[in-house]
Amino acid sequence: MKTSGSLAVVATLALLAGCSTVDGDVAASPDADASAHAHAVLAPASGSDVQGRLSLVGTDYGVRITGQITGLEPGSTHGFHIHQNGDCSAPDASSAGGHFNPAHQPHGRAGVTPHHAGDIANQTANDEGVATVDVTVQDIELGTGGPGDVLGRAIVVHAQPDDYTSQPSGDAGARIACGVITRD
Predict the structure, then answer these.
(1) Which residues make beta-bridge pairs with 131?
(2) Looking at residue 99, what DSSP letter applies?
(3) How many CA atoms lie within 13 A of 73 on its CB side?
C-alpha cells in the first residue's frame, strides 16, 4: 500500500514537472486545453505595409502573445493593444473600436493599476523593421467566455508609441495593422 501511494506522488510530481517553464517561458495552465490556443493574422491598415502573425496561449498568468510584426520602420516603436471589436474591415481599422476595457478603467501602462485590460507594452522593430513579440498580458483570458475573454477581439498595431497617459488611448496614432483573434 505504501508503495502505490509513493508511486502516485512520484507520478504526480513528474506530470507537474512537464508543465514547468523552460528558458524563461511561461508555463501553460495545467487546465488549458485546445480552446486556450488562438492566433491573429495582422493585415495592413491605413495604407501601411505592416503585417504579421501572432500566437496566443492561455497561461496561469494571463495570455501569452508571441510572433512577429513585419514592415515597420527600422528601430521604430509602436503602440500595441487588444481592441474591443473583432472587426478589422475598415481601411483604417476603426471598426475594431476602442481598447478592450471590461473593467471600465482609464488607459495606462500594462501591469500598473489602473489600465485597460487591452493595454500592452509598446513593441519596437529591429534594424530590419521586424518586431518580435513575446509578452504575457495579465487581466485577460482566452476562450473562457468570461468578461476578460479576448477570443474574437482584435489586436491593433499603431503608428506611434503609446505614451501610457493620454486618454482614452495613449495618443498612439493611426492603426497600421489589425488582426482578429481566432481559435487555432
Answers:
(1) 69
(2) B
(3) 9
